[in-house]
Automatic annotation (TrEMBL):
Gene Ontology molecular-function annotations: acyltransferase activity
Family recorded in the similarity comment: Belongs to the plant acyltransferase family.
Top-rank taxon: Eukaryota
UniProt-recorded name of the protein: HXXXD-type acyl-transferase family protein
InterPro entries: CAT-like_dom_sf (IPR023213), Sec_Metabolite_Acyltrans (IPR051283)
Pfam family of the protein (one): Transferase
Organism of origin: Arabidopsis thaliana (Mouse-ear cress)
């Protein structure tokens, strides 16, 4: 790949819902989980495709825009903008979504002289991939003036990259991939003339979770965003994709459960234990230094009563477990796996309710640099999302990539492997020194499919 390679923006436009839902004329209120996200960054994930035979790129772009307009009918809040109500005495800052008079979701067409192999064949994810996404370094509060959803279609020499940037105050990873999948479903339906009635197999549940006796408008104890919004700059990182075959994952799960004398530890918990141990070893921490591991957990099914599986919004927790570096490395893999499993097993509906009650009593905002301790590992995203099911008439994607957002030393994102069958790809972010050590770790690399 030529170091002079670049991404050139060709056009920018906005897309509104094809029809305006009546309910979009009313304010769209946010839940406590949504408020907590106001100072973190947009979700940025995308798919790379081989370029199909095209008479003109304009034809594909128009089809993408048309299907996006239809999809936004079902997800109309994403076409709005954030709006605020503030008071000085007492201090109060409330946020909601205003869908009136908004230009809509962003749509960008860009070109690059890169080839698919420049992305897939690179040992480390090239930094230019960050240019495949809009809203670079934006925080969710910027949704007052920026689109809440922006699509960037980047045409490579032999490929197409579709990158989505979605305001994290509007939804979590489950909601993000729900939208991506719905857009692809409508695109495919329009292609085959089967979806002219605008129906989705599983439409989103847009009604926000509002705790009984509260809301619908919540308030933060501030009068100006400068009091609670902080930007975040990632350190210099190496970012690499590591692939684990379905057979490797199956054997790892079996081994971990045998060590622990149980059958309840999942494949993902087993792999999380490996990555936590191996990154800790790569960091060469003092044996008495505490290191933590967090796992993103969907709370929809843990609520009482449970929220609908198609609930569109934020509904997640970052479950935490911790151990001294010495404990982690001197014990076998089962020690780490049981710690991770226990954190998940103990995350009950009561725990979720306590978390909500805590926020209602004392509202808080997440800040990346305070939420995750130094020398920790954070397992984000999920291999359960049907990410490769989004095809847009171009066949199965070649690979997944993410943007600049939420990257720090120890951040790991899990994707389903392209081969399917329970395979998993991990996007690992580490400072260069620790990445080099991880790549020399025999326990870790013996599991990686080259």
């Amino acid at each position: 790949m030529d170091s002079s390679s670049s991404v050139k923006i060709v056009s920018k436009s906005f897309v509104k819902p094809k029809t305006i839902p009546e309910e979009s004329k009313q304010p769209y209120y946010l839940s406590p989980w949504d408020y907590a996200m106001l100072s973190v960054q947009y979700i940025q994930k995308g798919l790379l495709f081989h370029k199909p035979p095209l008479d003109s790129i304009d034809t594909l772009l128009e089809k993408l825009k048309d299907s996006l307009a239809v999809t936004l009918v079902h997800f109309y809040p994403l076409a709005g903008r954030l709006s605020s109500l503030t008071t000085e005495n007492p201090k109060s800052y409330s946020v909601f979504v205003d869908c009136n008079d908004s230009p809509g979701a962003g749509f960008i067409y860009a070109t690059s002289d890169l080839c698919v192999e420049d992305i897939v064949g690179a040992k480390y994810v090239p930094s230019i991939v960050q240019s495949f996404f809009d809203h670079h370094k934006a925080v969710n509060h910027d949704g007052h003036t920026m689109s809440l959803l922006s699509v960037q279609v980047t045409e490579l020499v032999d490929g197409i990259f579709i990158g989505l940037s979605m305001n994290h105050a509007m939804g979590d990873g489950t909601a993000f991939w729900k939208f991506f999948t719905a857009w692809s479903e409508i695109f495919q339906g329009q292609e085959s003339n089967k979806n002219n009635d605008l129906c989705l197999k599983n439409p989103p549940v847009l009604k926000r979770y509002i705790p009984e006796g509260y809301g619908p408008l919540f308030s933060l104890p501030y009068s100006h965003p400068d009091e609670f919004i902080r930007t975040y700059e990632s350190p210099i990182l190496k970012e690499r994709m590591f692939c684990f075959s379905s057979e490797t994952i199956r054997l790892l799960k079996t081994k971990v459960n045998q060590i622990c004398g149980t059958t309840s530890i999942s494949s993902f918990q087993s792999l999380t234990a490996v990555i936590w141990r191996c990154i800790t070893r790569a960091r060469r921490l003092p044996l008495d230094r505490e290191t933590s591991c967090r796992v993103a957990a969907d709370n929809r099914g843990r609520m009482y009563p449970p929220l609908h599986k198609d609930y569109f919004g934020n509904c997640l927790s970052a479950l935490r477990t911790a151990a001294k570096a010495g404990e982690l490395l001197e014990n076998d893999l089962g020690f780490a796996a049981l710690k991770v499993h226990q954190a998940v097993a103990e995350h009950t509906s009561e725990k979720v309710s306590q978390m909500i009650d805590q926020w209602l009593k004392s509202p808080y905002i997440y800040h990346i640099d305070r939420l995750f301790e130094p020398m920790s590992v954070m397992m984000g995203s999920s291999p359960r999302f049907n990410k490769y099911g989004c095809e847009f008439g171009m066949g199965k994607g070649v690979t997944l990539r993410s943007g600049y957002a939420h990257k720090f030393d120890g951040k790991v994102s899990a994707y389903p492997g392209r081969e399917g069958g329970g395979s998993i790809d991990l996007e690992v972010c580490l400072v260069p020194e620790f990445m080099e050590a991880l790549e020399s770790d025999e326990e870790f690399m013996s599991l990686v499919s080259l």
